[in-house]
């Protein structure tokens, strides 16, 4: 006879008494989830979920930065400049890759834009032409770290339901939350492992779950630090394809990446190259080779353009960084285009100004989850983890 689950019937989780013989073929399944028949998802994985797009209607967000400088203390009285007056524009609907050699300032730029490094930063960051409000912007954006920080002792579906309760609150019923979670899991190809403990997931599944957890409230901006680190070629390609799909739904997706393969590089719609804290290129991935050729740097045939541009910025073919930086005006030319003269390559601000009023309405419409709800959800999760920790044989931990 099964030992009663102390969390059975909980109002916060859709959990019922775990069975000693899980109903699914997954040997690590640890709970039975009651799902109404109409919540089963049949939409193709290659399409953005209609519920995900309609659940939280949010206008697109463009991130513009001008003369951004970031320094860190060095020694007792000195300082080191990490970013040197860089500028740029990251638009919604695009998957942006921040490339560069080690120590170029990729992660620093990502962190400054996300609002996690502000103390020693100068310059301006504009969100739809308005100065960035860190507190408001953090409600609209999500930052996915390089390491997958997943809670142990809970299944994929339980992790998602915790996120749904914490992010959606009373704005949605329990059934609506479950429907949203099921669609996200289906879109990210996690349905088959939704009853698997997070500790038993593969590297690619953990990365997709990390992304899924941040999609619950449909954020318009997603930052990712080295999302393909530790993944094999297939998992890396699937991860970048997923990010491209999310960007095509109108989101602003920005990730730092070190050395993408040619296959991965082709999936990025916008490339921003950083070296020595300065911008060396900004534009479409397909324009990288023509841009370098305009500087008399010819990429060999059948050579990965990403590898070549990183090698050039590392000084393997001579010192061209100053020339590259001046050609792109340190990022002030937001989109390099060989068909246009430099004076016409700076981005038009009209669409950004039109979105300014939308940004005001967007930030005012977000509701915070009350402290009691947060405490209840996290306390119940902790109790569930403790219960399973003392019953390892039963749950296959």
UniProtKB/TrEMBL annotation:
It comes from the Eukaryota. Keywords: ATP-binding, Membrane, Nucleotide-binding, Transmembrane, Transmembrane helix, Transport. The keyword Transmembrane helix applies. Residues 63-301 form the ABC transporter domain. Belongs to the ABC transporter superfamily. ABCG family. Eye pigment precursor importer (TC 3.A.1.204) subfamily. It is found in: Membrane. GO terms for molecular function: ATP binding; ATP hydrolysis activity; ATPase-coupled transmembrane transporter activity. PROSITE patterns: ABC_TRANSPORTER_1, ABC_TRANSPORTER_2. Residues 17-32 have a biased composition (Low complexity). Residues 33-48 have a biased composition (Polar residues). Its main location: membrane. It is a multi-pass membrane protein. The keyword ATP-binding applies. InterPro entries: AAA+_ATPase, ABC_transporter-like_ATP-bd, ABC_transporter-like_CS, ABCG_transporters, P-loop_NTPase. Residues 1-48 are annotated as: Disordered. This is ATP-binding cassette sub-family G member 1.
